[in-house]
Structures are given as structure tokens and as C-alpha cells.
Amino acid sequence: MLRHQLTLAFRSFMKFKKIFAINLFGLAIGLTTVVLIMMWVKDELGISRNHEKIDRIYAVMTNHDNTGGIVTIGITPGDMAEAMKAELSQVELAAGTSSFINGVAFENGDTKMTGAGLYVDQTYFDIFSVDFLEGNPSQIMTGINSLAISETMATKLFGSPKEAIGKSVKWQVFDFHNDVEVTGVYKDFGSMEVDKPDYFLSFSYFKQMLGEGVHWGNFNASTYLLLRRDTDVAAFNEQIAGFIKAKDERSNVSAFVQPYGDTYLYGTYEDGKVAGGRISYVKLFSAIAIFILIIACINFMNLTTARSMSRLKEIGVKKSMGASRGGLFGQFMVESLLLTFMALVLAILATFILQPFFNQVTSKTLSMSFQSELILLLLGIWLLTSFLAGIYPAVYLSRFKPVEVMKSNIKGSFGELLARKGLVVFQFAISLLLIIGISVIGKQMTFIQNQNLGYNQSQLLQINASGVNPNQLDSFLAEIKKSPGVENASSLSHPLVGLRSATIGLTWEGKNPEEQVKFENVSVNMGLIETMGFELVDGRAFSTEFGEEESKIILNEAAVRTIGFDDPVGQIVNLWGDDKEVVGVIKDFNFESLKETVKPAFLKYDPGFAQKIMIRINPQNQQETIAGIEALFVKQTAQPMDYSFMDEDYQSLYASEQRVSKLAKYFGVMAIFLSCLGLFGLAAFTAEKRKKEIGVRKVMGASMMSVLTLVSKDFIALILVSILIAIPIAWYFANNWLQTYAYQTDLSWWIFAGSGVLLIVISLITVGYQAYKAASTNPVESLRSE
User: Fold this and answer.
1) Which of 184, 363, 614, 666 is paired with 228 by a 20 to 30 Å CA distance?
2) Rounded distance, CA 109 to CA 578, Å?
């Protein structure tokens, strides 16, 4: 029986080759898009979750109740882990970590390299799954001078992981240096981890470096907990809310825990609570995948019902010969299953071909490997698509009565007509939502790129200064300034992209002692303001013309507003117990994403605390200039230069939005294309049903334009309905998305009007082909069947 139905299905495909090809092509495109999106979603959902004990690992988050509102960060005091393990019975294990100082320079003989890593204690490896190739995992961080390095780092420094074990390595950052022993080599972290440290150093040494800087008012570490299995997390959060305040009565910071596996997807907070994050993109693209699958299925329905007029006599003969409705239903479902299976095979082949391009767009390393999980997913997609695509045509075609079929007395009901038109409205409403969404995202990204950040990003080079001897920093900067193509150079304590070093240690006369305000603390060298292009709105910059610049401070406008100074220059503030004179005010500059308002910040003169070297270069002969700087750097440090451009670093804050924008464009095009196929199908169906009517009209003298209007007007009405439905929904979601930015573009009327006009034009082109085809048909051919 199945073999017979398959034979009938193939005969049907060959009889209606054009409809078969369009159906197969449309379903294949839709399924390819769905498979790619599902691969991306599966990867996103798996990030940071590949640890053996992931269901019990929690990150400690802190809520800082500042004057501008609650700020939530994953940074805690350095003693937090130790105290929580000692005082809370629900905590099985607790680990403190810090990446406070990145870019540590390692040296093994003549071989030198820098890396980004973490300071951890032994408990870290008991909580997280780290795959060690060499060394005893239970004794990696037993000493303060222990070092664990990645497979790549071990190969670069020692030739192989095995050769690295037990070897001594020198490391240095700023004024800190030490000899450490390699006690472990671990496998490089894969794409499923957000942080991919090149090394692990002892957390105890980190605390020793900070000395008195480790206290309950200084937030410089991350704390991770392994909670016992029977822990009530909600009750635990209530218990630890005042944990920090109990240690420091002046503190305005409360704590809570968040599942570590959720920190990647749920990284946005409002009023101290989780409010979303990247999970919104996962939901968005999952919805797009579902919509595209539905659109592809709607196309199948429309095209199948459009060709039904050509199959009526076939159906009537089969029913007259005794075929049951169930038998015909089964035949049409077999056709759907077979066609969808063929489309799925094409989709899998297309996915393999498109994988490199898709990985480039998403910045991932996705690959399709036929494991049981993927096979089940593809099987589910096949069956679901077959059911969605085939159920309506199967019911529609199998219900016809043989007498009506043989008399050609088939009339579509109002309900069928409404359903078919409703499907087209749905298709184009989704397409218009995507068009508007793409336009809004693109407009906001352009706005961000053209926003005045308070300094000049252009041609601003940023170099990791970890390998530069602090005692030779000034002479090195002097050499760089003499290099051809260099306009200026200076140094500062940390990158100006993102919050890096906030403090509550700034006070002033009249400050409420109960109120704690965080200021971004930036240590700078002479010439930093000039090199960055900061705009002075009052006072002066740091200069060698004046003495004792260590006792001076420069505020940004946000800091002046927070403090309440009317005439800030000459005022005295106190930083960590030392009085500082305000000598200048710089215009607010964005050191975070434009999703955030500018926070209070100050610059202090401290050239010894230099992590980054900033160099302003001339745009002409750029490569030669960089090569000259690199030669000086290698001569100074004997290691390769790690550099980036500030505009690139700034754009990295919006990497997610930019990738989403690109993906949305591609998927939007797919949705529009598939919707047009659906419209093509409905136009073909209508032209087929009105074939005789059009023939009679032409015999009676109807012009080509009147026939075109006859066929097209109903479809334009459907598109207008789609626009009326989609625009309010699009405005709502676009407005909500823009509200996540402190600095946002406006929702211009032309975005909605232009998107609607574009949709109408695309629809007219699609329908116009079928209308022209119907209008140009010889009326004799249309009426011959009579």
C-alpha cells in the first residue's frame, strides 16, 4: 500500500512539475533557515553549561544602591568566598577569582609572551570542570607560587605540555614580578566558555599584591559557590542579602546568587533583579524560525490548493471507484511527507554549504554532526513540517463529493477564502515586522557609530603595556613620540571600554556620610588628555609646568553634577584619605555602552600604574607607523606587540547587536521571499478559479489594465491589512528595544512608511506576473472547456 502511494506521489510531482519545483524549493529554503537558527540557538543555550556540577554552581552578584539607581555587577570583595564558606551551611564549596590585572608577561629564557588569565584558588577546580592534560588536578594551586597554563601557552613557552610541568617561569605586571612553577597544563577552553584564560595564578598571591586593598569596601573579585543539593535558593538569597553590610556597616551593597549557567544568557538587570539579556535574542530567533517554518508551510498549502482545480477529476474518479476519504487523506499526507523529506535533504546539504559563511556572520564555530540529539531534532522538524504543510490540503482535497467533482460544481466556502487570505495577511505582517526591525536596528547602529563619545576614537592605537618596565615607561613613550607618523602618546591604568575600576573612596565637604557614590577611577600619565582628545570644559590638564600633580585631580561633568560643585576648579576633595585639588573638568565621555548613562569619573596622575599605552597616529602611512612602533616595543620588551584600535574596541560593545542585525537581514530576506512564494501561489489559485471569467471579460472587450486590476486589487487589500496590523506591533517592540539604550535614535515615520511601500512594491511585482499571465491568455483557451 505504501509503495502504491509513493508511486502515486511521484506521478503527481511529475505531472505538475512547476508547482512541485516551487514547493520543493520553498520548503528547502525554509528548512535550511530553520536548521541554521536551531544550530545557533542550541549553541547559545549550551554556553557556560558544560560543567559536571553546573546545576549547583552559582555566581554571587552584588547590587550597589547608588544615587543614580541600583547597579548590578558580578564583582565582590576579595574575602567574600572565604567568609561565605565559613559562615553559611548551604555552601559546600566557595571559590574567589579575579581578572583584575590582565596582560601578564611570562618569560622562559628568551621566549616571552603575554596572556589574559585568572587568579584562582584550588577550590575553583573542585567546582568547575577543567580538563587537565598534565599535573594533578587536586594539587594545582597548593602553593602561592603555583601556575597552571593552557595547552597553547605550554607549547609556545616550552615546546609541549609535558615539558612544561615543574618548570619555573618569570612573570611581571606593573611593579609586580615573581618566579612561579608550572604545576598543571589544561586543554584549551572551547567555544562553549565565555572566558578562555591562558593561565591560572594563585588567588592568594593576588590578595598579597593588593595588601590593604583587600577589604569589604573594595570590589575586585568574583565569587562562585557550589551549593548543597537541598538548598532553597530563594531563602538563601534572603539570607545573604545583608551579608556585606554585616561586614561593613557603611556599605550600600546587597548580594544574591544567580545560576552560573544563566549568567551568559541573563546578563541584564533592572532594579537589582534579572531582566533578560542575550536570552531575548534566543527567543527572537526561535520565533523567527517558527514563523519561517509556518510561512514555508503556508506556501505549500496555497500552492497545493491552487493546483487542486487540476486534480478534481482525479479525486472524483478515485472516489467513484470506491476510494475512501481516509485513503485519499493518507495519499495526500504521503505526498507531504515525501516532499518535505526531499526538502529536508536539500536543506541539510545547503546547511553544510552555508556553514562557513554562517559561522563568519555569527562569530561561532558551529558544525552539523549527526549525533542522536540532532537526528531526533531533524526527525521532529520533518514530521512537524509535513503535518503543518499537508494537513489542510489533505483535508481540503479529500472532502470533495464525487458527484460535485464530476459536475465541476465545486465552490469554495467563505471560511476557506477567509482562511487562505488570512494566511497571506499573516505572512506579510511577519515580513513587515522583520523589515521594520532591520531598519530600526540599522538606524540605531548608525546612530551609535556617529555618536560623539567625548573623545576622538579615530586613529587611536591601544597597546598592552604589561611587558614594559615601569621605570622605563617615560623614556619608552618619548621614543614612541619621535617615531614617524606618531602625533602623541601616553598611558593609563586600564582600558576605557567598560567599567573597570570603580571606587567609593572619594568624599568631599558636605557629603552625606550615609550615601555611597561610585566613581570610575582612571590613573593617567602626562599627555593622556591631549592624546585621547578629551575636551576640557574648565581648568587645565596635568602638566610638567606645575609641581606635585599627584595631589591634583580632574573630574568629568557627571562627577561635578553628582558632587554639586558650582565652581569646581580649585575645590578640594578627599581620595582614600588624601586631599586632592580639582584642577580641571573634562566633558563627559562614554566608557561604557551607550545603553548606559555616563557615570561619574575622575582622572588622577599615577604613571606607575600603566596597563595601556595610547598612541595617536597619522592616518597616512598607517602600516609603516605601526611597524615602527612595534619595532620599538619588541626592542623594549622582547615580545610581540598586542594592539588594537579604540574604535574597534568600542564597536565590540555592540558585537551582539551587530550580529543580530546581520542575521535579521538574512532571515528577513528569506521570510519576504517565502511570503512572495505564498502570494504567488494564491495569485495562481485565483487566476485558475477566475480563468473563465477573465476569458468572458476579454471577449466582451476588457482591456489588459482592467484585467490586471481585477486580479491584483484583492491582494493589495490584503497587503494593506498586513501593514495596518504589523505597524503598531512593530512600533511597540522597536520602542521597547530602543529603551534599553540611554542614547537612542528616534523612531522616524519614514521607517514605517518606507517599509510599507517596499512591501507593496514587492507584492505588486509578485502578483503582477500572475495577473499579466492571466490577462495575456487567449480567451479561446480559457473558454474551450465549455
Assistant:
1) 184
2) 42
Which regions of the chain are under pLDDT 50?
409, 414, 786
Angle of helix 2-15 versus helix 17-46 axis, rounded to 10: 110
Those residues whose C-beta lies under 8 Å from the C-beta of residue 602, and which sit 6 or more positions away, are 506, 519, 520, 521, 522, 553, 554, 555, 556, 559, 575
What cell numbers appear for 464 in the block? 598592552
Burial class (CB in 10 A: 0-12, 13-18, 19+), 238: exposed
Q: How far apart are CA 390 and CA 301, in angstroms?
A: 7
Q: Say what the alpha-carbon torsion angle 437, 439, 444, 448 is, to the nearest 10 degrees.
A: 140
pLDDT single digits (tens) 462-482: 888 767 777 888 899 999 999
Task: Enumerate the H helices of 363-413 as residue ranges.
Answer: 372-398, 402-406
C-alpha to C-alpha distance for 602 and 607, rounded to whole angstroms: 15
Cell numbers representing residue 663 in the block: 542575521
Structure confidence at residue 372 (pLDDT)? 74
Query: What residue ranges do the domains of the chain occupy?
Result: 1-47+267-411, 54-264, 468-638
Q: DSSP 3-state assignment of 270?
A: strand
CA–CA distance from 199 to each of 104, 127, 138, 185, 343 (Å)? 9, 17, 17, 9, 47
CA distances from 410 to 130, 401, 416, 433 (A): 69, 9, 12, 37
E-assigned strand segments in 631-782? 643-645
Contact 362, 368 (CB under 8 A): no
Distance CA 186, CA 198 (A): 9
How many C-beta neighbours within 10 Å does residue 82 have?
Answer: 17
Are the CB atoms for 232 and 89 separated by under 8 Å?
no
pLDDT of residue 781: 60
